[in-house]
């Protein structure tokens, strides 16, 4: 049961329906809006909600987009009568309907498990989709019957073409002859009533042998059908009659085929009308960020928003404050107090509108983790229902609502009462409101009640399952915060609000003097408690944020330590492997040296040479290098890892170093450098003479254009170019190969794939050449 009858408009649901109507594309869809009824039937509500949610998913994925045109008459009774046929426009509408149905059914067939409720909606519809092809064979894209729709029609169309040619030939000859004689006006051949005529000057009309057909508005031109054209025009008219008769036969035949599946087509129209309505609800849900919440025994709603208020605030570039509320066995009623214009009524209406929307089959704007209970009854007392006709005052209308609520409430009822007990003397209205609250609590009902009365706030503290709540107010700035805080009553902030709107200070002071001392002290105390609670909540939020930050730092530190430990293990493993390799190599050289000494017969000169050779080999195997990742400094001699390039650090910026390599400077990360001794640097440089090295540095270019080159020549040149880049320590190369057919680009990629010195190959930014240029990053 829902009370009063105007509950929808009082909660703003009528405005929600206006929004839905805006999203409907057909009158069939709009007709469903007038049939909306709220219910507590769980299965019915779940079907509505899941249908809408499934369409919402389709909309968000963009999987199924189409327009609907259902506003045409199938003329069911007439369609089954003898001789009836659908006009071309009706047949095209039916074809469009079949195309949409076919598309939906094919889509749902592939995704039946994802959209079971939509599958159920379109179940049992089985029209003949071959009608789509049949209609295309008969009706062209210009919405005209195709000449080839039948053999008879084709012959008639051919005969019409021949007759028209003959008429044009004859009429042109007659026109030219009459024109030479000066009988015609300054016009061309005309057609009147489907017949070709000559535009003859009226003073010469008797000089043309023919039939008078019509006359111009001024009377100066008479339209004469020459006697030579009468027979041809008659023949053409007869052919057009035959054509129309044949078209009617074709349309009757096609109509007969459509009528066989008329029931399925009719059902398809109905289901598509329902789909149009469901899609309109889904579009609204998408615009309002609505979700499908859980349905359960309790109501626990997070981040609820009044959608209509959110719309209005959005136009003002303002954000709505979300509402959290719980209604369950231990907290059935919430009594909200606080300042005027502080959000009490908005909170109440938000709760009511979302509940009414949900029980009418609408998704609701809140967090997806929310849970709603479906109530058997929803009773509200919002606004002023005074009526001269019914002899009801404001207070009387509130009492009438209270009577209904008390008489019909039970443990499955939601009650929403705004400003309970108002409209009369507070001395009597307060106690009456208190008694009403007691009765509602005894009935076990759930709901929200707003008030300014202190006795109601006090009563709420004593009643089991009733909780006080306050709309927060910024005392310093004298403005409402529109936030609901559970657990304590709120001050009305009467004097603060009065001061904020600029009321005379003396008047406010006098009002305070006239206020009941106990009442004033209580209100002041409530204001102070609220202020302190806000401060505590603010401090708590700051502490929580700091704790979260500390946990994040701890996590980052732990991950960094684990990463460093792993790197340390890798470095140690690599060093051990390298040492083992050097030892193994040294052992082989020692054994070889011993053999050479024995073979030399202890010859001192030969023995000395063998020893020197061994020493040189060992020195080459153990370069004087020192990996210093964190202690590199300006002036150090370093080698670029995986290259033979050696240079001097001339500047360090954070984790990068600028090197002087011969006559060239380059930049690289510190982790790519190894500090080396003078001996090792000398050994590296011996591979390239000083003059050659400087020459290569000065002439080397990091960009190469291979467009127009033969593939083999290009690849050979690229290989040499990369080798020189590695020697010179260049980190990045740019190859211009062009787009074209992509052969040179693909061969280059294939050739360089797996190159040991290449870290990666990417394309240039689209604005700088895109796939026509490859960027080669060297290790």
Report what the structure shows.
By secondary structure, this protein is an alpha/beta fold. It has six domains: 11-127 and 261-288, no CATH class; 149-255, MutS, DNA mismatch repair protein, Chain A, domain 3 (Orthogonal Bundle); 294-504, Rossmann fold, CATH 3.40.50.300; 540-621; 625-693, SH3 type barrels (Roll), CATH 2.30.30.30; 700-778, 2-Layer Sandwich (Ribosomal Protein S8, Chain: A, domain 1), CATH 3.30.1370. It has 24 helices and 25 strands. The strands form six sheets. A seven-stranded mixed beta sheet has the order 1-11-12-13-9-14-15, sandwiched between helices. A six-stranded antiparallel beta sheet has the order 16-21-17-18-19-20. It is flat. Residues 386-391, 622-629 and 685-691 have low confidence and may be disordered.
């Amino acid at each position: 049961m829902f009370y009063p009858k105007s509950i929808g408009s009082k909660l703003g649901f009528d405005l929600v329906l206006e929004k839905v109507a805006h999203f409907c594309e057909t009158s069939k869809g709009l007709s469903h809006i007038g049939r909306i009824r709220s219910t507590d039937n769980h299965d019915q509500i779940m079907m509505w909600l899941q249908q809408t949610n499934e369409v919402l998913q389709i909309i968000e994925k963009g999987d199924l987009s189409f327009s609907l045109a259902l506003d045409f008459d199938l003329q069911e009774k007439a369609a089954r009568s003898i001789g009836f046929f659908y006009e071309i426009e009706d047949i095209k509408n039916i074809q469009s309907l079949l195309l949409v149905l076919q598309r939906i059914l094919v889509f749902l067939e592939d995704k039946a498990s994802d959209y079971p409720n939509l599958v159920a909606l379109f179940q049992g519809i089985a029209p003949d989709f071959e009608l789509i092809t049949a209609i295309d064979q008969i009706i062209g894209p210009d919405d005209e019957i195709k000449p080839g729709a039948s053999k008879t029609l084709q012959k008639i169309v051919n005969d019409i073409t021949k007759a028209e040619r003959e008429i044009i030939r004859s009429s042109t000859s007659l026109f030219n002859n009459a024109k030479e004689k000066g009988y015609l006006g300054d016009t061309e051949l005309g057609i009147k009533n489907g017949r070709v005529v000559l535009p003859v000057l009226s003073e010469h009309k008797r000089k043309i042998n023919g039939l008078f057909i019509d006359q111009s508005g001024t009377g100066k031109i008479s339209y004469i059908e020459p006697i030579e054209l009468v027979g041809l025009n008659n023949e053409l008219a007869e052919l057009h009659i035959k054509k129309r008769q044949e078209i009617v036969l074709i349309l009757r035949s096609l109509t007969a085929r459509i009528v066989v599946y008329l029931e399925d087509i009719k059902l398809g129209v109905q289901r598509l009308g329902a789909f149009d309505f469901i899609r309109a609800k889904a579009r609204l849900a998408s615009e309002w960020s609505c979700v499908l919440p859980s349905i359960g025994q309790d109501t626990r709603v997070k981040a609820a928003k009044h959608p209509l208020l959110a719309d209005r605030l959005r136009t003002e570039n303002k954000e709505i404050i979300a509402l959290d509320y719980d209604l369950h066995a231990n907290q059935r009623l919430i009594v909200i107090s606080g300042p005027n214009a502080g959000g009490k009524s908005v909170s109440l209406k938000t709760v009511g509108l979302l509940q009414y929307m949900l029980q009418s089959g609408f998704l609701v704007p809140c967090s997806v983790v929310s849970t709603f209970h479906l109530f058997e009854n929803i009773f509200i007392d919002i606004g002023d229902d005074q009526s001269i006709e019914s002899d009801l005052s404001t207070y009387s209308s509130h009492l009438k609502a209270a009577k209904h609520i008390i008489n019909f409430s039970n443990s499955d009822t939601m009650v929403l009462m705004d400003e309970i007990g108002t409209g009369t003397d507070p001395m009597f209205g307060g106690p009456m409101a208190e008694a009403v609250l007691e009765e509602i609590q005894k009935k076990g009902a759930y709901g929200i009640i707003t008030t300014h009365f202190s006795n109601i706030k006090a009563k709420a503290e004593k009643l089991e399952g009733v909780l006080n709540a306050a709309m927060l107010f910024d005392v310093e700035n004298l403005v409402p915060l529109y936030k609901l805080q559970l657990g304590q009553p709120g001050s009305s902030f009467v004097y603060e609000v009065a001061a904020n709107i600029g009321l005379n200070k003396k008047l406010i002071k006098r009002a305070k003097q006239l206020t009941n001392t106990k009442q004033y002290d209580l209100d002041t105390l409530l204001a102070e408690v609220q202020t302190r609670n806000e401060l505590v909540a603010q401090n708590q939020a700051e502490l929580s944020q700091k704790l979260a930050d500390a946990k994040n730092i701890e996590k980052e530190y732990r991950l960094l330590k684990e990463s460093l430990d792993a790197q340390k293990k890798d470095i140690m493993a690599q060093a051990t492997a390298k040492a083992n390799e050097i030892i193994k190599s040294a052992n082989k050289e020692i054994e070889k040296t011993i053999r050479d000494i024995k073979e030399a017969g202890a010859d001192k000169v030969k023995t000395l040479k063998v020893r020197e050779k061994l020493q040189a080999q060992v020195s080459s195997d153990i370069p004087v290098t020192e990996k210093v990742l964190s202690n590199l400094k300006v002036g150090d001699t370093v080698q670029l890892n995986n290259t033979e390039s050696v240079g001097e650090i001339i500047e360090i910026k954070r984790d990068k170093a600028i090197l002087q390599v011969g006559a060239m400077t380059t930049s690289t990360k510190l982790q790519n450098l190894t500090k080396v001794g003078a001996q090792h640097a000398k050994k590296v440089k011996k591979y390239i003479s000083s003059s050659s090295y400087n020459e290569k540095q000065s002439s080397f270019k990091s960009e190469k254009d291979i467009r127009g080159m033969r593939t083999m020549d290009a690849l050979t040149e690229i290989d040499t170019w990369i080798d020189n880049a590695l020697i010179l320590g260049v980190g990045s190369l740019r190859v211009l190969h062009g787009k074209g057919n992509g052969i040179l680009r693909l061969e280059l990629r294939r050739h360089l794939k797996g190159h040991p010195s290449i870290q990666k190959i990417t394309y240039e930014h689209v604005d700088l050449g895109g796939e026509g240029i490859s960027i080669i990053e060297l290790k």
